[in-house]
Amino acid sequence: MRTVLRTVNRVLLGLVGLVLLAVGGAVLAVGLGVPPPSWWIHDGPHDVLLSTAERTKWSDESWWWPTVIAVLAVLVLLALWWLTSVLRRHRLAEVLVDTGDGAGALLRGRALQSVLEADAAAQEGVSDAQVRLTGRRDAPGTRVRLRLEPHVDPGTALRDLADRSLAHARDSAALKRLPADVRLGAAKHKATRVT
């Protein structure tokens, strides 16, 4: 769902940007005196966007105002949906744990997340760890950010995270898989003074 939303956002923002750029550039060009093509809505720099006749053309029709209101309501609802989907935090609230009796149990996502963070931060050479659960409650995933000390080998830190922290979380929650997107960064350190 997240990739679909990201694609929809990019396509919509790209289309809106292209339309605004084309219309704005064309209006600016006509305003600066470039002769407009015959099909263009403006005749010159002193022309108005909508004349009085164009503005009032359909206002006496019975279908006009309900159609305008319906279209604007749909646009407002789509804009609100888009805004809430962009602003919503995509954090997994709970994880479904298979208890073996068919009923299952729910594990709070923040609990698993904080345990993973503490376990990852306790690794040798890791100065800071941030974990976020993603995915669905029956198929969770993780996004992990580790800040490593300068002397730590990134491959060793990644192996320790996979073999210790993620394996422990996967086993304790009885998950078949726990995919992880791991980002490694270097911790800032003070320069040492040589005397």
Descriptive overview:
The protein is α+β, with helices and mostly antiparallel strands and 195 residues long. Helices cover 46% and strands 18% of the residues. The chain has five helices and five strands; from the N terminus they run αααββαββαβ. The strands form two sheets. The protein has a three-stranded mixed β-sheet, with helices on one face. A two-stranded antiparallel sheet has the order 1-2. Helix 4 (109-121) packs antiparallel against helix 5. 11% of the residues are buried.
Question: In brief, what are we looking at here?
Answer:
This protein is α+β, with helices and mostly antiparallel strands and 195 residues long. It has helices spanning 2-31, 52-55, 64-87, 109-121, 154-172; strands at 94-97, 105-108, 126-136, 139-148, 180-186. The chain is elongated, with a radius of gyration of 28 Å.
What are the main properties of this structure?
18% strand, 195 residues, alpha+beta
Give the helices and strands, then pairings.
Elements: H1 2-31, H2 52-55, H3 64-87, E1 94-97, E2 105-108, H4 109-121, E3 126-136, E4 139-148, H5 154-172, E5 180-186
Parallel strand pairs: 4-5
Antiparallel strand pairs: 1-2, 3-4
